[in-house]
Amino acid sequence: MSREKVRIDQASLTFGDLADIEDVLGLALSDVFEKSQSKGMAALVWVTVRRTDPTFTYEQALQYGPGDVENVEPDPEAQRANDGATQLRSLASGDSTPVT
Length: 100
What we know:
Blueprint: E1 6-8, H1 15-25, H2 29-35, H3 37-49, H4 58-61, E2 69-71, H5 76-81, E3 88-90, E4 96-98
Parallel strand pairs: 1-2
Antiparallel strand pairs: 3-4
Helix pairs in contact: 1-3, 2-3
């Protein structure tokens, strides 16, 4: 079966994606790759592909293999921009804005 490689950018995962992985595997995220690397990789494929194909299922992701996946390295510039060095101040409304 020929298919396009799935480019997995772990830095782009949302908390919702991570919670969905925990739900589908019945494991805490900290245990996912310790218990089953293959199921963990399938879950990463699932949450990545479903962004463009909401009907894509975890069961379909299990049909993928290591040759179908490309891990995307984080962009060093984006990491520097999001290094946590920017201070936030709380406003009365609960919003946060960077301190300049």
